[in-house]
Amino acid sequence: MKTLENLKNCFRKLQGVGPRQAERFTLHYLRAPEAEVAALIEALLEARKNVKYCTECFNYSEADLCPICADKSRDKSILCVVQEAKDIEALEKTKVFKGVYHVLHGAVSPLEGKNIDNLKVRELLERVQNSPIEIKEIILATNPDSEGEMTALYLADLLRGLVGKISRLGYGVPLGAQLDYIDEMTLTHSLKGRTDL
Amino acid sequence: MKTLENLKNCFRKLQGVGPRQAERFTLHYLRAPEAEVAALIEALLEARKNVKYCTECFNYSEADLCPICADKSRDKSILCVVQEAKDIEALEKTKVFKGVYHVLHGAVSPLEGKNIDNLKVRELLERVQNSPIEIKEIILATNPDSEGEMTALYLADLLRGLVGKISRLGYGVPLGAQLDYIDEMTLTHSLKGRTDL
Q1: Contacts of A32 in chain B (CB under 8 A)
Q2: What ipTM was assigned to the predicted interfaces of this complex?
Q3: Interval A53-65: pLDDT, tens
Q4: What average pLDDT is seen over chain A?
Q5: Which residue in A59, A71, A94, B137 has a CA-CA distance of 20 to 30 Å to B194?
Q6: Are residues B120 and B82 in the same domain?
Q7: What pLDDT digit, counting tens, does each position of B69-80 carry?
């Protein structure tokens, strides 16, 4: 049936959604109460209309400034650079970081044809150079994989000289893990970064 | 952000979609081209407007009769009862079955509070009783799990006397499987149902 195929193909565009899941979504929305479909459409349109980038950090925001950048108690001299907006949520849960963020919206990835022109890197440099207060430290919190690593090294090169300190998240064994399941690179890092007791 | 939370909560209603996948879907639709969002909304509305149940077999259909029921070459004296519309697709791929279907839209499940009143069972009985031609056989092709099994036994009770033959899909080892990975119930069935060579 063409109508159902159309809807299924829409869901196939979502990353990680295969033919079976797309079919399940399609049947779900065929059977769902009218109100649920209306709510989805409304939420989609609202999100598209109201959500934009924060003009400072490029996090998603409904206002010009996101709640974090608008918060006067945050320390604007420490910048934490992340790949995706959702990384901010994870870091905020630690309640440890009191600085502000900068969202790159991706990582350098030659395979996917993504270079720094597709990321908010120029904006980061401008932000650092034009900052009204001195930026003391930039934490490069890109993902601990090859793309995130490459992006961090690249940014470190660009930022060197502009800020006093450039740092990277510490590597090591994650809490709750079992040693025999941890890859050797992580273990190497955890040995090098061992702390005194 | 409330707008994004709203959209995320919409996706959480989909079966099997957790918080992370809902978040990925949300970000996907924030970044997607305008045309993709428009296509999704259009496909949703079209599906809701145009797709209804086939009046004979309760498969999804854009016309009063689904393509299978409308096909004059199909044998209407053999009825194959399935739980879900998507099961029809799987059975049609075999190209072996030339009869028609009846979709229950679920299985009896006391745990989920689903009894025969929520299924197209009354419609099945009416269909059998009012059929212009004699129905010779009903194949109960519900799933080979406890709920499908229970549903099949229940239907067999109800249909006994109304049709000449009531059958169930054959159990056994699936092709391409490795014996040591197959559960003992299936193996028991495959031994009982062994065929001469």
Answers
A1: 13
A2: 0.74
A3: 999 999 999 999 9
A4: 90
A5: B137
A6: yes
A7: 999 999 999 999
Asked whether residue B13 falls in the same domain as residue B88, the answer is no
Are B65 and B135 found together in one domain?
yes
| Best residue of B44, B68, B69, B83 to probe chain A, by most A CBs closer than 10 Å | B44
- In whole angstroms, give the CA distance from residue A73 to residue A148: 29
Domain contains A27:
yes
What is the domain-level CATH number for residue B153?
3.40.1360.10
Residues A155 and A82 in one domain: yes
Confidence of residue B50 (pLDDT cuts 50, 70, 90): very high
* Overall domain count for chain A: 2
On whether both A68 and A129 belong to a single domain, the answer is yes
In angstroms, the CA B27 to CA B30 distance is 5
Q: How far apart are CA B134 and CA B76, in angstroms?
A: 9
The pLDDT, as a whole number, for residue B181 is 81
Count helices and strands (H / E) in chain A: 8, 6
- Which residues on chain B are in Cβ contact (under 8 Å) with A114? none
DSSP helix/strand/coil, B89: helix
The answer to the question of residue B194 being in a domain is no
Asked if A37's CB is within 8 angstroms of B44's CB, the reply is yes
Q: Are residues B59 and B46 in the same domain?
A: no
Tokens of B50: 């145009």
User: pLDDT per residue over B107-146, tens digit each?
Assistant: 998 888 888 888 999 999 999 999 999 999 999 999 888 8
Residue B71 lies in a domain: yes
pLDDT grade for B55, boundaries at 50, 70 and 90 = very high
Tokens linked to A47: 């999100």
Residues of B with CB under 8 A from a CB of A: 1-4, 6-7, 9-10, 13-16, 21, 23-30, 32, 34, 36-37, 39-41, 43-48, 50-51, 60-62, 84-86
Q: Which of A21, A34, A86 sits opposite B23 (nearest CB)?
A: A86
Question: What pLDDT was estimated at residue A145?
Answer: 87
Statement to judge: residues B34 and B75 lie in one domain: no
Give the pLDDT confidence score for residue A193 in this predicted structure.
80
Longest dimension (CA), chain B: 67
Q: Are strands A75-82 and A137-140 parallel, antiparallel or unpaired?
A: parallel
* For residue A182, pLDDT beyond 90: no
- Domain of residue B24: give its range: 2-50
Please report, as a single letter, which amino acid is at residue A151: T
* Partner-chain contact A29 B48, CB within 8 Å: yes
Looking at the fold, whether B39 and B66 belong to one and the same domain comes out as no
User: Residue holding tokens 């990582």?
Assistant: A107
